[in-house]
Structure formats: structure tokens, C-alpha cells
């Protein structure tokens, strides 16, 4: 069993129908969104607070607030956006109380470039900043045993995702695993579009490098 | 970002994520297109980044703590019963 796989796809039910069912007291619909959204919400909360139990409390408090506020929700945003906004407020307040040391306002600015610079020709020559012969990417050849590879790749990617720096992990999870839009992620995390793009870029680049290492054995540090 | 008409391989790597998302300014996006049309290696890199994003989208399921579900189910029932 793949314990380390992440997130079901977010619901495709139209928002109006979902809201109607929830307001009718449809417990199945409520359980469905709790199950579907909570893994991503936990990951998001974890980026604001100090501990996993604290993140779980944030998610619980968020859902309790959703239950209390459901009848008053006017539907001017997506339900999911509203829920994530509540979570953001609760997580931020809890994080401030816990004096969490890395605020979202400061993304890592002292990181080296996303890919190992030695894979490119030095500036100044005729092939400046082009790939070197050794550094150029080689195609990933699929294995004859596709089923085994697919399962291994999923596990590798899930593990690599869990090992990303926290802010990169959160953004990549929300954008690429959970399929949220750039605007939703920025609103939910309270970050600028520019910050979001940088974190997404760095996270994706590292994950591509992990897959490259799996296929070809390149040094995965910086790809 | 400058208004130069061309990008190097190293610059393209830094732009690839935005390029895949369609968020580059048009002039820069066209410069990336031109580079990809003539570079032997960068299309491989971009394809691999695209494949990485695709695989991430296919990752599935992690468990929600059962006690969280229990607490919420009780709260839901109480709230809806209170509304009847």
C-alpha cells in the first residue's frame, strides 16, 4: 500500500450544488470535502505553525468555523477559497502566537541557483551559458516493466516532495498536486505572485532533478 | 528581465516553470520558443519538467486523522440538528 501518496483530486462538483447539499445537512457531502481538502489544508497549516499537532488543531478549528459560518456564506467566492481563507487567518494567528521563526514574508533568498551552474558553459566564451556535453539533460527512457516503474516513481516523487523546504513543498503541493490556481494559493498563503512563482520554480526544479537522478544517476543536489 | 531577443540555456532553465504555466511576458515567451526550436537539449529539459508536473498531478491520497473526522462529524450533526 502506498502510504506516502498524497491528496485525492479536489472535487469537480459545481460549487452551487455542493453548497446546496451542505446547507441541506448532507453529511456525506461534508465528509467528502473534509476528506478531499484536509490533507492539503494540513500541509498548508503546517507551514504556519510549529508542530503537526498544532497544524491538526488549525484544520479542526477551520472546519468548525466552516460549520458555524456555512449558512452565512454568500457564495461570492468559491467554497474552497472561503475555507482556505478561514484557515489562513486561523493558521496565521496561531503561528504568530507560537512565534514561528520563518514568516511567509521572507522566502529563502540565499539559495543557490536552482540547477547546478557547472552544467552550463562559463560566461564569455562562444557557448556561454549553454549546456555542457556532460551537463545536458538526457531523455528519460521508460523501463520495459512500466507498472513497477510507475509505482517506484510515485513513491520517489512523494518522498522527494516531503523533503522539499517547507515553503516550496507547500506551494508545489497546492499548485501541482492539488491543482489550485496561482491566485488561490497567493490568497490562501498571503504571498505575492512573484514569491509564489519563485517557490514553485525552485520546488519543481528540485523534483525534476530527483527524477533525473533516478533515471541517470546525476548528482541530485542542484540537478 | 531585459528586453533581449534571445535566451541562453541557463536562462531558459530559470524561465521554464513560468513558460510551462504560460505566465512569461509575450516577448520572453517568444524568445523561449525560438530557443527551443534551435537547441538540441533544452526541449528535453522542458519536457522533463512538464512530465514532473504531470506526475505530481497524479499523486493521490493521504489519510485524514480519524479523530479529526470523528470530531467534525459530531460537530456537523449537532449544528444541523440545532438548525431543524
Please explain how this structure is put together.
The complex is a heterodimer of chains A (223) and B (84). Chain A contains 8 helices and no strands. With 223 residues, chain A is mainly alpha-helical. In chain A, helix 2 packs across helix 4 and helix 3 packs across helix 4. The longest helix of chain A has 24 residues. Chain A is elongated. The N terminus and C terminus of chain A are likely disordered. Chain B is an all-alpha fold and 84 residues long. Chain B has 4 helices and no strands. The radius of gyration of chain B is 23 Å and the shape is elongated. The mean pLDDT of chain B is 87. The chains are: A mainly alpha (223), B mainly alpha (84). Chains A and B meet through helix 2, helix 3, helix 5, helix 6 and helix 8 of A and helix 1, helix 3 and helix 4 of B.
Work out the helix count of chain B.
Answer: 4
- Spell out the helices and strands of chain B N to C: HHHH
Going by helix content, strand content and strand pairing, the class of chain B is mainly alpha
Strand content of chain B: under 5%
Number of strands of chain A: 0
Low-confidence stretches of chain B: none
Taken from the alpha-carbon principal axes, the silhouette of chain B is elongated
Distance between the termini of chain A: 30 Å
Largest protein interface, residues of each chain: A-B, 58 and 45 residues
Number of strands of chain B: 0
Which oligomeric form is depicted? heterodimer
Amino acid at each position: 500500500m502506498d502510504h506516502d501518496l498524497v491528496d485525492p483530486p479536489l472535487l469537480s462538483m459545481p460549487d452551487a450544488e455542493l453548497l446546496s447539499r451542505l446547507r441541506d445537512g448532507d453529511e456525506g457531502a461534508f465528509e467528502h470535502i473534509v476528506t478531499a481538502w484536509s490533507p492539503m489544508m494540513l500541509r498548508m497549516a503546517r507551514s504556519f505553525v510549529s508542530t503537526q499537532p498544532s497544524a491538526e488543531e488549525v484544520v479542526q478549528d477551520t472546519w468548525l468555523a466552516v460549520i458555524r459560518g456555512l449558512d452565512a456564506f454568500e457564495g461570492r467566492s468559491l467554497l474552497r477559497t472561503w475555507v482556505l481563507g478561514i484557515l489562513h487567518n486561523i493558521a496565521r494567528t496561531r503561528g504568530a502566537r507560537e512565534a514561528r521563526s520563518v514568516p511567509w514574508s521572507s522566502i529563502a533568498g540565499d539559495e543557490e541557483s536552482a540547477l547546478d551552474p557547472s552544467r552550463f558553459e562559463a560566461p564569455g566564451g562562444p557557448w556561454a551559458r549553454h549546456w555542457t556535453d556532460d551537463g545536458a539533460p538526457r531523455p528519460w527512457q521508460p523501463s520495459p516493466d512500466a507498472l513497477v516503474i510507475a509505482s517506484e516513481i510515485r513513491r520517489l516523487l512523494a518522498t522527494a516532495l516531503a523533503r522539499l523546504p517547507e515553503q516550496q513543498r507547500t506551494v508545489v503541493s497546492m499548485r501541482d498536486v492539488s491543482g489550485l490556481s496561482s491566485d488561490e494559493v497567493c490568497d490562501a498563503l498571503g504571498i505575492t505572485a512573484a514569491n509564489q512563482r519563485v517557490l514553485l520554480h525552485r520546488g519543481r526544479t528540485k523534483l525534476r532533478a530527483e527524477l533525473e537522478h533516478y533515471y541517470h544517476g546525476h548528482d541530485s543536489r542542484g540537478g | 528581465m531585459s528586453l533581449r531577443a534571445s535566451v541562453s540555456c541557463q536562462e531558459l532553465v530559470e524561465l521554464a516553470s513560468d513558460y510551462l504555466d504560460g505566465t512569461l511576458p509575450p516577448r520572453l515567451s517568444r524568445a523561449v520558443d525560438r530557443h527551443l526550436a534551435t537547441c538540441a537539449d533544452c526541449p528535453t529539459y522542458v519536457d522533463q519538467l512538464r512530465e514532473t508536473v504531470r506526475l505530481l498531478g497524479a499523486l493521490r491520497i493521504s489519510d485524514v486523522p480519524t479523530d479529526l473526522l470523528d470530531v467534525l462529524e459530531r460537530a456537523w450533526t449537532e449544528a444541523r440538528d440545532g438548525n431543524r
